[in-house]
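Thread: S-adenosyl-L-homocysteine complex, take 2
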Amino acid sequence: MKNIKDYNLEDLKNELKGMGEKPFRAEQIFKWLYDEKVESFDEMTNLSLELREKLKENYTMCNFQILKKQESKDGTIKYLFDVLDGNAIETVLMRYHHGNSICVSSQIGCKMGCKFCASTGINFIRNLSSGEIVEQIIKVEQDTGERISNVVFMGIGEPLDNYDNVVNAIRRINHPKGLNIGARHISISTSGLVPKIYQLAEENIQCTLSISLHATSNEKRSSMMPVNQTYPIEELLQACRDYIAKTNRRISFEYALAKDNNDNLEDAKQLVKLLKGMICHVNLIPINKIENGQFDKSSNENIMKFRDYLNEHGIVATIRRELGSDIEAACGQLRRKNL
Ligand code: SAH
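Output below.
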């Protein structure tokens, strides 16, 4: 069956026309789905009984079930959602002073194979549909009764490896009749799928692009992130320059610091050279150790020295606050589950 949450407004209007209904019904349905966040067609009381029956016959509501909910001492909540096909994914709600941020998953599993990340491995199952991406936000808003103001595509999966669904989801998250979250409050993080970065630059979406850089030489980056063998640093940074030129948006580079691997001042120096002249920001992430992982977290002292070096040499750098590490909800700690 088709998922009613997979449609944008125009497509849903066409679906309804095809059923002999007036297109404005699509707007009513959008209101029930994205404002009222109802869980069944029966609750859509301004639709005729007949239409509700027709909808039930043809579409699912895609109601993710909460299998598990863990709350960290810092207020972060990690959800394990049953995605209704025997798989489960994780979604994280982070509470900041400036509002609530949600970290959504875009795939069940991941193909990228980054050596430091628990989401990866041989266990790629499938892409999430746009409706399944949006559903994570709906369920968390519904469960907490709190408004979400920021969305980051930093959960399980490589968002640009599920390009169409992620872009469609963003359009619905952003749409005034959808979840109505400003595009500037939406970030996509990518391990660096170069052709897709060029494509994204053409979409005319004002979202923020984050690049997982993590190393300054191809040798080291390839040893941490196999994707670098296909799209090496020079090609990646060229795509970033193009993205900045086309969108006028600042790029955010993520750099996870691992002890004795990529955290000395020589690395910082190389990073300054690589990023010179780009409108960007560097987000330093103290690496989170994963099960059987070969990387350890850098010392606080090294992390601060690294940040200070960048700031003193014209690159704006901040250290990402670690949230939810006590419930394995921090960067790189999310994984898919079998039911
Ligand atoms: N696939 C996307 C989104 C992944 S997660 C990407 O690669 O960008 C978001 C960020 O967390 C990425 O920068 C990722 O490299 C980083 N990350 C993954 N594992 C980590 C770990 N163990 N410690 C710290 N950051 C990690």
